[in-house]
Specification:
426 residues, alpha/beta, six-stranded mixed beta sheet, five-stranded mixed beta sheet, 25% strand
C-alpha cells in the first residue's frame, strides 16, 4: 500500500489457459475494474496468465511491488492446473499449510448435498502460512488474502457467481481512498471511430480532466468520459459539461448512454411514436430482427421479419422485379430499395429496413468486393434512404456491422437527420 495507507492504484490478474488462449471471455476484469473505479481506485494494469505457477508468481510479485491493491481471479479449483495458491506462496516465499476451518467448510459444502468430499478437494483448504482464507458461500473454493510488498493481495475463484459476492464483502469495505472517479459512457453509431475522434477534436486532449476517449466494437463507438479528483460534486459537474460538449459535436450519431443498445433505443422511440418496423434481410440472415426482438416490449413495434436470402424469395415475398437482378444484381441500391418498399407493402408497417450484401469469405468481385453491403430504410411517409457500405473484417464482423448500420438508418429517420452521411466501420 502507498506510504500514507491509501489505495490509489490497482491491478487485476486473470488466471487460466482458457483465458490466455482466447477460448473464454474474461468478464471478471471488466467488472472488477468498474467496481473499483466507483470507489475512486484506478486500475492501472491488467494481466492474463496461463496455468503456469512460475509465471503467475512472478506477475503477482511484480504487481505487488508497484501497486496498492492486487486482485487475482481463477486457479483456485481442486485440479492439477489450479495453481494460484501455490503461486501466491512462491511469491511470498511461504510454505503452504492446511487451514482446518477452510477444510471443514469445503467438506460441509459436499455433505450439504449428500455427498462425501473427494480427496482432491482437500487442496482447496491450503493457504500460504502468511495468508488468510476468505469463506466462499457459493462454491468449494475459498479465497485468499495476503500482504506482499506494498500491496493488499486478494485471490478469488473465477466463476462470477462466486467472485462477485466475495469481492463486495471482502474488498470494498477495506478500501481507503482519497479520490473519486466519475464516469459517463455515450454510445454512437453511424460514423467510424476516426470520424468521431475528428469531431471531438480538443475534447480528447490527454491533459484534460475529465479525460475523453473512444472504444469501437461491432459498429458502435463508445465515448468514455472519466474524471479523477477529490471532489465528487465538481467531478459530476465537469463530466456533465463534457457530455454536453460531446453531444454537440457528435450530434445525431449519439444514440444513448451507458450500456444502451441501438435496438433498445429504437424500440423505445418507436413505442413512444406508436410506430412499427419491418425487416427484410439477405446477408444478415435475420440479425436485425433478432436484435430488435431481443428487447422486451418489442412486440408492440415489430411488425414482421423476412429473411429473403435467395433472389427467388426476394421476388416472391417482397416483389423485387426480375430486371433488378438482371441489370443491377441483388447487391445494389435498386434491390434494397425494392426490398424495403415491398416490406412496407407486405406488412403495413411505419418503416422497413432492408439489407443485402456480400459477407464473404467468397462471392466478391472487382466491382463488388467482399464487404460490399447495401442497406435501405423506407417509411410510410414516402421517404427512403439507401446507403452503400464498404465493410472490412470476417464474415461475422461484416454481418454484425451491417446489422448496426441498417438500424442506424432508422435512427437517423427518427431523429430527423437523414442527411447525415453514414460512414462504413473499418
Amino acid at each position: 500500500m502507498s506510504g500514507d495507507g491509501v489505495h490509489r492504484a490497482a491491478g487485476v490478474i486473470s488466471i487460466g489457459d482458457e483465458l490466455a488462449l482466447g477460448q473464454t471471455l474474461d468478464t471478471n476484469s471488466m467488472w472488477i475494474s468498474a467496481r473499483l473505479a466507483e470507489r475512486g481506485v484506478a486500475v492501472r494494469r491488467h494481466a492474463t496468465i496461463a496455468d503456469d505457477q512460475g509465471a503467475i508468481a512472478a506477475e503477482i510479485a511484480r504487481f505487488a511491488a508497484e501497486l496498492d491493491l492486487v486482485v487475482v481471479t481463477g486457479g483456485l479449483g481442486p485440479t492439477a492446473d489450479d495453481l494460484t495458491r501455490q503461486a501466491l506462496a512462491e511469491a511470498m516465499g511461504d510454505e503452504l499449510v492446511t487451514d482446518d476451518a477452510a477444510l471443514a467448510e469445503v467438506r460441509s459444502w459436499f455433505e450439504s448435498s449428500g455427498r462425501s468430499m473427494p480427496e482432491a478437494n482437500a487442496v482447496q483448504a491450503l493457504r500460504p502460512a502468511g495468508a488468510a482464507m476468505l469463506p466462499n458461500a457459493h462454491g468449494t473454493a475459498p479465497g485468499l488474502r495476503a500482504r506482499l510488498e506494498r500491496a493488499d493481495v486478494f485471490c478469488f475463484p473465477g466463476p462470477p457467481t462466486e467472485l462477485r459476492p466475495m469481492f463486495d464483502r471482502d474488498v470494498l469495505p477495506m478500501l481507503r481512498t482519497d479520490s473519486v472517479v466519475v464516469t459517463r459512457l455515450l454510445r454512437t453509431a453511424g460514423a467510424g471511430e476516426s470520424a468521431i475522434a475528428e469531431r471531438l477534436g480538443g475534447l480528447m486532449d490527454r491533459d484534460r480532466n475529465p479525460l475523453v476517449g473512444t472504444t469501437a466494437s461491432e459498429g458502435v463507438i463508445t465515448v468514455r468520459i472519466r474524471y479523477e479528483g477529490a471532489d465528487r460534486a465538481e467531478g459530476g459537474r465537469l463530466v456533465d459539461e463534457a457530455a454536453e460538449a460531446v453531444r454537440r459535436e457528435v450530434g445525431a450519431y449519439c444514440f444513448g448512454e451507458a450500456d444502451e443498445t441501438l435496438a433498445e433505443v429504437l424500440v423505445r422511440e418507436l413505442t413512444a411514436r406508436h410506430e412499427t418496423v419491418t425487416t427484410v434481410e439477405s446477408c444478415t440472415g435475420g440479425l436485425v430482427a433478432a436484435a430488435l426482438t431481443d428487447v422486451p416490449g418489442s412486440s408492440a413495434v415489430f411488425a414482421r421479419g423476412l429473411v429473403t436470402y435467395s433472389n427467388d424469395v426476394k421476388a416472391e415475398l417482397v416483389g423485387v422485379p426480375a430486371w433488378v437482378f438482371a441489370k443491377q444484381g441483388a447487391v445494389s441500391r435498386a434491390c434494397v430499395e425494392a426490398m424495403a418498399r415491398g416490406g412496407l407493402e407486405a406488412s403495413g408497417a411505419s418503416h422497413a429496413i432492408a439489407v443485402s450484401g456480400i459477407a464473404g469469405p467468397d462471392g466478391g468481385t472487382d466491382e463488388k468486393p467482399v464487404g460490399t453491403v447495401w442497406t435501405c430504410r423506407a417509411s410510410a411517409d414516402g421517404t427512403s434512404d439507401a446507403r452503400r457500405l464498404h465493410l472490412k473484417g470476417s464474415r461475422e464482423q461484416v454481418r454484425r456491422r451491417s446489422t448496426v448500420m441498417a438500424m442506424v438508418l432508422l435512427w437517423l429517420k427518427l431523429r430527423g437527420a437523414e442527411e447525415l452521411r453514414v460512414l462504413a466501420q473499418v
